[in-house]
Amino acid sequence: MKRQIWTVSGAALLGLTLLGSGISQAQPTTTTPSTTPPAQGDIRKDLQDIRKDRQDIRQDRKELQGDRREIRHDREQLRGDDRELRKDRQELREDIRSGASKEEIAKDRQEIRQDERKVHEDKRDLRHDRQELHHDRQELRHDRQDARQDRREGREHRGGGGRGR
To answer: Domains of the chain: which residue ranges?
Structure first.
């Protein structure tokens, strides 16, 4: 009678030992890898969201640029009106010193009141434009955050493919 000799490799022996002790080699993983590609609709929706976010960001940048332009214009206008006010005050002082008529002094005071109103309006406009700029900056910040979130969600749906952050 012939006897057959069986050889068992180390890995097979380890596998048999683990099976015998009740521990399986294939333990369940915490995250299941995505083996099926996402539905085309999901990808299209992600791309639409990203395009929309980029469009919003471009629009916000244009609004910021316009707000800055308005602020620059308001500052120039404020400087001009402030110069005019100082000039009128100087003129009033000179008229008082030179002993000008009451009509001339009243006219100078009227001009000063008008200039003060203009300066007040310019300051109000400047304050309003600064608030608008602040609001538009916040809106841009939120749109950028939304875009980042959409990109992250898109990568998760597609099973990675992005940079390792």
So the answer is: 41-156
Q: The tokens of 150 are what? A: 């959409």
Percent of the chain with pLDDT over 90: 47
pLDDT, position 74? 92
d(CA 39, CA 55): 25
pLDDT in tens, 80-139: 999 999 999 999 999 999 998 999 999 999 999 999 999 999 999 999 999 999 999 999
**DSSP conformational letter for 2:** -
* Contacts of the segment 110-119: beta carbons below 8 A, 24+ positions apart: 112/85, 112/88, 115/81, 115/84, 115/85, 115/88, 116/85, 118/81, 118/84, 118/85, 119/78, 119/81, 119/82, 119/85
- Which tokens hold the place of 112? 């000063």
Confidence (pTM): 0.57
Whether residue 137 contacts residue 64, with contact meaning beta carbons closer than 8 Å, is answered with yes
User: What's the rounded Cα separation, in Å, for the pair 81 and 1?
Assistant: 120
Tracing tokens 């841009």 back to the chain, one arrives at 140
Best CA proximity match to 130, nearest among 78, 86, 90: 78
